[in-house]
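Dear colleagues,

For the upcoming journal club I promised to circulate an example of a predicted protein-ligand complex. I picked one with URQ because it came up in last month's discussion. The inputs are reproduced below in full, followed by the predicted structure.
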Amino acid sequence: MGVLIRGGTVVNADRSERADVYCSDGVIKAVGTGLDVPAGTEVVDAGGALVMPGGIDPHTHMEMPFMGTRAIEDFESGTASMLAGGTTMLIDFVIPSPQQSLTAALDDWSDWAKKAVADYSFHVAITWWSERVEQQMAECVDRGVNSFKHFMAYKGALMVDDEILFKSFTRCRELGALPMVHAENGDAVYLLQQQLLNAGITGPEGHALSRPPHVEAEAANRAIMIAQTVGVPLYVVHTSCREAHEAIARARAAGLRVYGEPLAQHLVLDESVYYSPDWEFAASRVMSPPFRTKDHQKSLWDGLVAGSLQVVATDHCAFLISQKKMGLDNFTKIPNGTGGIEERLKVVWHFGVNSGRLTPEEFVAVTSTNCARIYNIYPQKGRVGVGSDADLVVWDPKATHTISQKTHHSRMDVNVFEGITVTGAPKVTVSQGKVVWKDGQLDVTRGHGRNVKRPPFAPVFEAQAKVNDRTRPHPVKRTVHLQQTP
Ligand code: URQ
Ligand code: ZN
Ligand code: ZN
């Protein structure tokens, strides 16, 4: 049975139009007015609301084993939460433990994700290096992975050095896969952590103090330099501060294909949380990079408007307070991560569109379409158009909602956006052509999610290859005049 979304205004990244949308068999079959639909079609009355492509969150960590524990949000609760917030697809990170084969780790995450109620895809992290890793990157690409993550932080755990970055980026260029970085100088963080602990600073404020903005910016610049040297695009995850944004903006102005990803959390929350007298409140906000001072938020918003930053994500990596208490006496032991997958669209709409920073079309671009384009799944995803997947959100720009842990669908016992009242919320979410969120109720099915394969060699790789050919140095031809022997 199909679904007809009637009476709405379709908003895509490029334009908006008054149109109805008819979906069947999980695909958008018609967009227009006066559509002729089969008897028995389910009708959703948009009532003047906006009909947008479902959000795509390219940065999540469901069930992630990390820092001696495991993220509490699993693929079922995480994908259900995202549908309640109008997001219809996530891209999660497969993180092989050092020396673990990439494909074995991909098998693990693929098994865990089988319980997902909506679509997902995977990045794979490069946490160690060998010829076997190089070979297995090709196997991951064959299995629909077109992006590889590199942690420049988390020394002694996930961190890789510049030589591995260089070799892995080179492999990414050969495979047509996008390299991604968590850009913080892990050595500087480690040494700052020791200094702070020795000075008796053990609370969550130590986390923020050990990861200042310039420690992030240095790594962003370094990763950009390596990508430029290798000749490959680069995606910088959770760009949190002005200095890292400026590094990306400089690179883009110099013609380099570098993408930046601010998080909903960094756009609206600030580092004062770490100085709260309430340890649980402060520790529940510990993530890397940390929330910054408010002045950095303007730079991130300006970047989304200017196009120097392209994608808003959440880095949803959820831990309970009881797990955060692993670091009660030592901030370096607090599991790093916060949530936001259900709140992302509401937060970006309220603080972005209602404030006039973003148009509705730009909102769609930064929460869905740009991500689909960068990860080479557009227009299957990220567009309300004939032939695209029937992943949609009917957005009521007038609806108000106060964010709270008491009403969210995450398994977390804290919501970092607690108490924020937003205007603009998802009225209906459609996933694979099925109404899954309506009237404040979820109607989801465990296992309904699909693993969305993402082909390598997105269009930028073809352009980049031409740049590399044009700029490749060639050996200088010389004639050596041998000295005539006297
Ligand atoms: O660094 C990440 O992206 C993962 C480990 C989630 N945690 C975090 O603090 N960002
Ligand atoms: Zn990270
Ligand atoms: Zn992350």
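Two points we might discuss: The longest helix spans residues 213-230. The pocket of zinc ion (ligand 3) is lined by residues 59, 61, 315, 317 (CB under 6 Å).

See you all on Thursday,
B. R.
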